[in-house]
Amino acid sequence: MLHTVVDEWVHTLALHCDVETIDYDFDLVEVCERVKPDFLLFDSIHWGRNHPLAIANIDAFPDLPRALLLNSDPHDPMRPLTMDMVCAYGIDTIFCTGIEDLQQMNELRRFNCFVLPKFIDSATFRDYGEERSIPVTIMSAHLFPAFYPWRAQVTEEIQRILPTLLYTHPGYAKGEVNPFEIRDESYARMLSRSQFCLTDTTRLDYVVRKHLEIPAAGSVLVSPPSEALADYGFVNMENCILGPAGPELYANILAIARDRRLYEYIRSNGHALVHSRYTRESWTHILDWFECRRNLKSGEMVQQDGVFGAFRAVPAAADAAPVVNFEVHDNPMGVKLRAAREALLHDGDLAAAAGGLRETMDWVAHVGEPWFLLGVIALAVGDRENAGQWLMRRSMAQGSHDASLGLLDPCEIAWLMFLAYITADEALFQQMSEAARGASHLSIRRMQWLIAGASPVADLSAAGLDKPLPDDCLSIHWLGDEDFDSWFALIQRVLAKIYDTAAA
């Protein structure tokens, strides 16, 4: 299933250019001499394809543009492997499929990132002219209610008020055939037979494929209010219905169903929005970027004109943003992560911060950012034993079946190195020191400086202790790029608590 989703991006690119796909280990020199590519586009590492390729001579052809299509879930546990790949492969541009990647991974915001929309296959997702015999449809109705809370509440309530089809998700089990599973045209026809289709934006408030598939198939999209949907051009009562779960939403659906002129107005506008902007045929963003890039003059850079916008050449400047007029706002997960970061750096309420992080674990059980921050909080309250378990949890979980997937994030390496040093765990310290050799990062440099004796530094910037360096690896975590004074104050508080606890 995941392979099919990823392959759609390849098939779409192939509508507009020649694509050579390589999903095995290879030699870059041999491939480039054979294919003569204009640019290299790397895919994310994710649940479905979780092993990076071994590429010989990766440093060859340094002038060949290299970009990453970051098309995995923003909470995919394999993201540290993808971030490691950015450094290892010399990638200089990242295409995010929605703003959620930038919301979830704080350090991406200092990288050269552009924001692209999702899209549909217009040959499959279209109005089939079916009789709209299903009043309301909710696909995957009962799946992961903690992660889809709006959908969970609506599913429980609306079926008692309006005739509703609840279509159970077939699941992700491998090798099993579900006789009731629908895909492709049969799924699109089900949407087309529905007057209204409901889908959630998840706890993390991001657009999923169904937000486009539903109106593309000729049904009316119903969803919670969302800034992410606004970026796509969805407007309540113009081309969709947006509203909090509850009686007012259900009454609104019923009123629109009774007013056939208004219903058709909203339905046709939603259909036109998706088919005019978000189809395979119109998804030429990466090629537009390349065309702009290869025509740059000296002293120019590529800039995107807003989220999903066109690319243009502008004068290169230190304060020139990759995406103009774009500010990343925290999603609900980001709110919890930022609160924990602020509590750690500014001596805040760590108990409340930990409670917020634990709450997010009910939303997405496999996301690693809360685990790491809980590990640092454990150190900050003197709990060394649990600190190690939290700091190692993501790596251990991913590496339990395949050690190659257990790659440590740079921030995890730094804090595990610190923990090993203060607990005199020589084996762990050696392990982290070895891991640090292949991971340049601000948090690692600072910990190494601290452990080496924290000798006075005349110029923090020259010592690499002031801020991230251009060649640093990227971390998924929300602690590690703070200013030096805040970091050092946190270290002092942690050490004071550790020694107080040991003395007691």
Helix content: 40-55%
Unreliable residue stretches = none
- Mean pLDDT, rounded to whole units? 94
Q: List the domain count as a whole number.
A: 3
Main structural class: alpha/beta
Radius of gyration: 25 Å
Gross morphology? globular
Q: What amount of the residues lies in strands?
A: 5-15%
Could you give the count of β-strands?
13
Q: Your description of this structure?
A:
This protein has 504 residues and is an alpha/beta fold. It folds into 3 domains: 2-117 and 283-315; 134-277, Glycogen Phosphorylase B (Rossmann fold); 332-503. Helix content is 43%, strand content 11%. The protein has 19 helices and 13 strands. The chain has helices spanning 2-14, 28-35, 79-88, 100-104, 149-158, 184-192, 210-216, 227-232, 247-258, 260-277, 285-294, 332-345, 350-361, 369-380, 384-399, 410-422, 426-436, 442-451, 484-503; strands spanning 26-27, 40-43, 55-56, 66-70, 93-97, 113-116, 134-139, 164-167, 194-198, 220-223, 241-242, 300-304, 311-315. The strands form 4 sheets. It has a 5-stranded parallel beta sheet, with helices on both faces. A 4-stranded parallel beta sheet has the order 2-4-5-6. A two-stranded parallel sheet has the order 1-3. Strand 12 (300-304) and strand 13 (311-315) form a beta hairpin. Helix 15 (384-399) runs antiparallel to helix 16 (410-422). The radius of gyration is 25 Å and the shape is globular. The N and C termini lie far apart (55 Å). 40% of the residues are buried. The mean pLDDT is 94. This is Glycosyltransferase. It comes from Novosphingobium beihaiensis.
